Structures are given as C-alpha cells and as structure tokens.
Amino acid sequence: MANKITVFFFMIFILFSCQNDNQKRIAENKKEIKKRELIFSNIDKGWVFYDAPINTTSEASVSSWNELRLFLAELSQKPKKTIGAFQKKSTEISKKAMVLRESVPYQFSKPQIKSRISTLITKVRLLDLFIHLDNIPDKKVVLLISQINIELVSLQRQMDKIVEKSKIPVEMGESEMLKMLDTTRAIPSTPIPNKSFDPNTPRVE
After folding, report:
1. What does DSSP assign to residue 54?
2. Model confidence at 31, in pLDDT bands (50, 70, 90)?
3. Which residue, 109, 139, 108, 141, is CA-closest to 125?
4. How far apart are CA 42 and CA 32, in angstroms?
5. Where are the domains of the chain?
6. pLDDT exceeds cutoff 70 at 85
C-alpha cells in the first residue's frame, strides 16, 4: 500500500513538473516572438535608402552608368512581411554594390571616386552580415543604413565636383605649362657635346 502511495505522489510530481516546463517554454516562446517582432518593426521603419539621384550629374550618370542605375533600383524596392525578405534584399544589394567598383566610367575613374565606392561597399557588406546573424542587432542595421545613405550622397557630390571642374575653360598658356610640368614629356638633360672642342688642348690632371 505504501508503495502505491509513493508511486501516486511521484506521478503527481512529474505531472506538475511537466506542466511547469511547458508553461516556461510557452512563456519563452512568446518572449522570443515579441523580440523578433520588435526587431522586424525597427528594421522596417529604418529601411529608408536615398535611392534617387541628388543632382543633375548623378541623374545623367544613371542613364549611362548601368550598374549604378541597377544599384539604386535595388535600394528602391523595400522588402515586406518577413525578416527573411530583408535578408534576401540585403544580399542582392551587396551583389549590386560589388559590381560598381569594376564598372566606373572613364570620366569618374579617379582615386576619390574609387575610395568612396570602396567605403560604400564595406558598409553594404556589413549590413548583409549583421542582418543574417541569428541574433540580429537591429540598431546596428539601422545605423548602417544611415551610413550607406551618407556614402551615397558623398559619392554623388564628388561626381558633381569632377563634372563641374571639367567645365572650367583652360586659360591661355595653362596647357603649355602643364606639359612642361609633366616629367614624362620633359626633354632629357644630357650634356651636349662641344663641337668646337680641340683635342690638342692640354687637360688638367
């Protein structure tokens, strides 16, 4: 009889333990769902890119620089509904950004443009990295989006500076002066032999 009572209480203990574990699991699941919803909400609100040209130079470049046009078009398409959609979009943005470095038009193929594109690519790849983490740092993701926008503005302003500088007329004599300063075109400074040199002239040892 005593054994039956012991077994009975043991079963009750197991039953209550299972119920407590289930309640804890349900509470943890609810907490995790709320956390994911908050992360999604923060990223959804912060996912705002400067996807339109900011000046006439970038507007003209978009029509001829195909890779830049595709990159901005990718930024303009905002994902919806799930964090997975944002993850896929960030990967596509990263792919489009990588191509920019290899397709810079001749007019903009200058160190100041290339350095800005490299910085932009770094920020985009970091965005893609952070948003694919198991525990997504949503604040860092939103911060990176704002930094990408800053780099986009900086790139387009630099493009505009290059175009404006190219419009400045070269002053008279400036092109000749630039040629003289060009060491690759300079006349070699080799001594000219003296044709009137007399071989019978005594030399000082």
Report:
1. S
2. confident
3. 141
4. 15
5. 47-166
6. yes
Q: Is the pLDDT of residue 180 over 80?
A: no
> Which phi and psi (to 5°) does residue 26 adopt?
-65, -40
Handedness of CA 34, 36, 39, 42 (dihedral sign): negative
Three-class secondary structure of residue 116 per DSSP:
helix
Report the candidate in 87, 69, 73, 179 with the shortest Cα–Cα distance to residue 138: 87
How far apart, in Å, do the first and last CA atoms of the chain sit? 132
pLDDT at 52: 87
Q: H helices within the chain, ranges in order?
A: 2-46, 56-64, 66-76, 83-101, 111-131, 138-167, 174-181
How far apart (Å, rounded) are the C-alpha atoms in residues 66 and 149? 20
H/E stretch holding 15 reads: helix 2-46
How do residues 89-109 score in pLDDT, each as one tens digit? 999 999 999 999 889 999 889
Give the Cα separation of 162 and 77 in Å (integer): 30
Q: What is the pTM of this model?
A: 0.70
Alpha carbon distance 33, 116 (integer Å): 39
Rounded Cα distance, 25 and 31, in Å: 10
